[in-house]
Specification:
With about 290 residues, the protein is mainly α. It is built from eleven helices and two strands. A two-stranded antiparallel sheet has the order 1-2. The longest helix is centred in the N-terminal third of the chain and has 31 residues. The radius of gyration is 19 Å and the shape is globular.
């Protein structure tokens, strides 16, 4: 029983990271209509940049992380204006294919410039012995830190979206692009802000996982399937659903790896995904939208 509880706790924390990747994609989809497949590879790029600052140049987290936040936001804005602002009227399929191209572009750039000698060891966020939660459950301090920071990040996102003018405009854009255009909102500037926010979330995913997986080109390859499966299970149109779906996926993957085989976890996840798409297409907490024909 203690093993099951420990596996579930670690699965919840792993699900947080899946959920953050899904949240990053959901923010873009709701505000720009673009379903971006590039988020895991953007997180990989930011993980390498974090490694250079913290691992190579020996900057402390307190110095490096604010700098990385600025870099991540700048990368998001640059990606939008260079890769998506130009020719943004060519249709959603065109823009989605661009995200696949961006994924491959970043992957090949990293393989060309930085992959020699990988994987690279990333300094731990928090050192020290594991913490006992009772009932024989031992949790690493870094795992606790990841869970706590994720909760704080979600609270901050909620406050920004509900208590700030820009956040309210983003929500309006997410609900109806037509109404936001009628109200004269700067749609393209809001899209750039959405890309910046999405990329900052990718930074958190990168820093959370780099000490666990080390830094290498394919470090987030599993996230491509599991994170987007969690997003669809939770609800593509729901930011809270992204996190809930990620937790469901994280628990399924961890429990199957502990008691059976890791491959069974993928089978369970995609059986769940198929069932949700058949019986509840909007996701666990998603909303169904009616369209007038």
């Amino acid at each position: 029983m203690s093993l099951l509880l420990q596996v579930v706790v670690s699965g919840v924390v792993a699900g947080f990271t899946y959920g953050l990747v899904g949240l990053s994609a959901s923010i873009l989809y709701k505000t720009t209509g673009i379903f971006s497949f590039a988020q895991p590879m953007i997180a990989t790029l930011l993980a390498f940049l974090a490694y250079f600052l913290i691992g190579e140049y020996k900057l402390s987290y307190w110095v490096a992380f604010p700098l990385l936040l600025v870099i991540a936001a700048a990368v998001g804005v640059a990606v939008y204006y260079i890769g998506f602002r130009i020719g943004d009227g060519h249709g959603q399929f065109n823009l989605v294919v661009r995200t696949l191209g961006l994924f491959l572009l970043i992957e090949q750039f990293i393989a060309w410039r930085w992959s020699r000698g990988e994987p690279f060891a990333f300094p731990p966020l928090i050192e020290g012995p594991s913490v006992s939660l009772g009932a024989g459950i031992q949790v690493a301090r870094q795992t606790i830190a990841v869970g706590a920071v994720t909760v704080v990040l979600l609270v901050v996102c909620y406050l920004l979206l509900t208590r700030t003018r820009t956040g309210l405009m983003l929500r309006c854009l997410a609900e109806s692009a037509e109404n936001s255009a009628v109200l004269g909102m700067p749609r393209r500037r809001l899209a750039a802000i959405a890309w910046a926010a999405s990329t900052v979330i990718c930074l958190f995913v990168a820093v959370f996982n780099a000490p666990i997986t080390n830094v290498y080109t394919a470090m987030f390859t599993p996230f491509v399937l599991f994170a987007f499966a969690g997003l669809l299970i939770g609800g593509l149109y729901s930011w809270s659903g992204a996190l809930i779906g990620g937790v469901v996926v994280g628990i399924a993957v961890n429990v199957s790896a502990a008691y059976w085989k890791p491959e069974i976890g993928a089978v369970i996840v995609f059986v769940l995904l198929l069932g949700v798409l058949i019986f509840r297409p909007a996701g666990i907490v998603g909303r169904t939208f009616a369209e007038r024909l």
